[in-house]
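Dear H.,

Thanks for agreeing to be a second pair of eyes. The structure we're designing against is below in token form, covering all 271 positions.
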């Protein structure tokens, strides 16, 4: 077990406690729009502050990349934090949201924790040690045909320049799978792929904190993670494709004809 894993677990549970308490008084929360269709409340900030306080207490020299406060510090170790993935669900009382924390060292993910506070489900992974749900080992599904697979996705709700390409992908995946689901919390969807509940997942326009912990969970559960072309730049491009190895390859085949030149040329971001 990576020595940072227990600290990440402690931080995720602290954030989960804040979220659970706040879920009982949604009508009292102050909500603002960060951008189109992107909501935030004081709960996001309080949960993030609690996470950072715990991480800084044990690792004061590590850098932080967090959804609400941005990037701080300069280190080969970077904590990537989404204090409340699925904020819109949370604010509407829809119990599909989570805390996501990952540790990256020299651009390699080392630790991943996703905590679902409504179900008290804790997903954990450290590089080379496997993936776990509530201390039980998890693996990606064994389904080998996309037509039998349940596939998760997320709509490009903040950026619409790729909506034509995305809708074409969605149409063909719907035709060639057992079903498509869009729960609204990408980190939790990736955890579901790791646990074998979803057979695959793809989305466009995500941020590193949406993907980092879930990506490591899937890799440690025996799955594959890449960008829409199957390459390794998903944290930079914001495009992600994940699944068990056979479903992963079949999704690439289905969506590849719909990857527009604009989508292929998505600017890489440094993280």
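And this is the sequence the design step returned. I haven't edited it by hand at all.
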């Amino acid at each position: 077990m990576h020595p940072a894993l227990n600290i990440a677990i402690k931080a995720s549970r602290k954030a989960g406690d804040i979220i659970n308490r706040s879920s009982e008084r949604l009508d009292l929360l102050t909500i603002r729009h960060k951008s189109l269709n992107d909501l935030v409340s004081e709960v996001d900030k309080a949960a993030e502050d609690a996470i950072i306080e715990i991480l800084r207490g044990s690792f004061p020299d590590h850098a932080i990349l967090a959804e609400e406060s941005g990037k701080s510090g300069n280190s080969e170790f970077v904590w990537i934090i989404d204090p409340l993935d699925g904020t819109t669900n949370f604010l509407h009382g829809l119990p599909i949201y989570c805390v996501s924390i990952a540790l990256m060292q020299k651009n390699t993910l080392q630790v991943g924790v996703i905590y679902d506070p409504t179900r008290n489900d804790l997903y954990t992974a450290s590089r080379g040690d496997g993936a776990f749900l509530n201390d039980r080992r998890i693996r990606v599904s064994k389904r080998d045909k996309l037509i039998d697979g349940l596939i998760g996705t997320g709509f490009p709700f903040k950026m619409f320049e790729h909506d034509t390409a995305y809708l074409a992908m969605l149409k063909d995946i719907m035709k060639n799978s057992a079903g498509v689901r869009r729960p609204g919390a990408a980190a939790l969807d990736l955890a579901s792929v790791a646990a074998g509940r979803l057979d695959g997942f793809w989305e466009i326009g995500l941020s590193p904190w949406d993907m980092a912990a879930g990506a490591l969970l899937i890799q440690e559960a025996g799955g594959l993670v890449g960008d829409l072309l199957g390459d390794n730049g998903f944290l930079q491009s914001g495009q992600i494709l994940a699944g068990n190895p056979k479903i992963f390859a079949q999704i690439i085949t289905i969506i590849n004809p719909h990857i527009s030149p604009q989508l292929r040329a998505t600017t890489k971001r440094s993280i």
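Two observations from my side: Residues 146-264 form a domain with the D-Maltodextrin-Binding Protein; domain 2 fold (CATH 3.40.190.80). The chain is about 35% helix and 25% strand.

Warmly,
E.
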